[in-house]
Design brief:
The complex is a heterodimer. Chain A is α/β, with parallel strands linked by helices. Helix content of chain A is 34%, strand content 24%. Chain B is mainly beta. The longest helix of chain B is centred in the first third of the chain and has 6 residues. Chain B is globular and about 45 Å long. Bound molecules: zinc ion.
Chain lengths: 348, 131
Amino acid sequence: MEGIVGYGAYIPRNRIKVEEIAKVWGADAPSYKKGLMLEEKSVPSPDQDTITMSVEASKNALKRANIDPVKIGAVYVGSESHPYAVKPSGTVLAEALGATPECHTADFEFACKAGTEGMFVALNLVKAGAVEFGLGVGADTSQGAPGDALEYSAAAGAAAFIFGRENLVARALETYAFMTDTPDFRRRENKYYPQHGGRFTGDPAYFKHVTGAARGILEKAGAEPQDLDYVIFHQPNGKFPLRVGKLLGFSKEQILPGWLVNKLGNTYSGSSPLGLTSTLDIAKAGDKILLISYGSGAGSDAFIFEVTDHIDKVRDLAPRTRDMLDNNKNYLEYGEYAKFRHKIRKAD
Amino acid sequence: MSTPSRYWREIPQRYRKEANRCAPCDLIYFPPRLICPECGNRALEKTVLAEKGSLMTYTIIRVPPSQFKDQAPYAVGIVEMDDGVKLTGQVVDCEFDKMHTGMRLQMEFRKMYDVGHSGIICYGYKFVPEY
Ligand SMILES: [Zn+2]
């Protein structure tokens, strides 16, 4: 059987509160906090990007997997904020881990779904017997245009999963993908900030694909919502995952352990994968976890994992996701935040 | 300024902290050496540096070399790693008034600097407060 042999997270220490952003743009903070269920979000330091966070998350996954990194035969990084337009992120990651040179590497892009795409392919290469271990990472340092609604949620973080066949912390019971061509959100070449379709991003986009993937994988697995112990949905804001969960018949107790968005923001490709690392941190042997990502454009990947008793041996070999979210925080003012995110144009 | 080829040659040290060790002398060399200068041993074994250490001393750089100008002011410290190796590096994610000698630090992978807007991005390790 195939599944996860190691998992790791990375969340930067900087935070900015919704009030601090709203103050600058004369927006109504309480309406964002209530409407989107957002309180604060993570912000990368100026010397952090998708590559550096992928390395830290993957090193944490490697500590839990306790394998020789040179046996990792596939390294996939999913992000919509790869630092280079052409040079891959995965080469730096594979080199930093010591997985080179016998290693297949590719960068994935599919809005917020890129992380689970890397996981999907890495897992299935292991399943096919093509590689002994495969690494899939979701990481982003996402940007919203100043003053845009996205600025309140666009955050930074990374989650990494090493797939293999032995010493599993979670077995992969089922996978499923649901995808249509839906132009709800996009960023054209050379445009700094993305465009989104306002209300169009809701029903025909997020809800249609997330429910499509959830119903599809449950049917494939012959399962009902109550057969799962935990469920993680992509978290563009606080409200969407709770609403889609209710729509599908999941309880808040199933959702909340992996619901990080109110304090973390939307980490795009890292969003649902970080929900999974946080859920694995507290899950027990036998627990079943449903993971459903969403990426604009648009589609969802779905996975059902079953946790093994091996998890108790490896859980504390690397930092837990909630600890990284709740401890060592450094709150920024808007000016520092704008400088950190390179939103200020300087003389050359 | 680092050229892409020099940066590339240093990747095992910059990305993976690869060092080597003379077993008879119980000494670690970083960057790695071919021969132990203490005993002349040529059979040095490969090792990687410890990830954590303690701050021995530090200074704040306010007038930096050109490739670090966007980062100034920043802290540079000498850190005694838990394996005894002493390393110089930037200390980040820590306010200057909270820094003190003896504080526990760990390495984190960071961007060192960009070579302009169109050149390579140089990565490596910096120190951050221990989690
Ligand atoms: Zn010697």
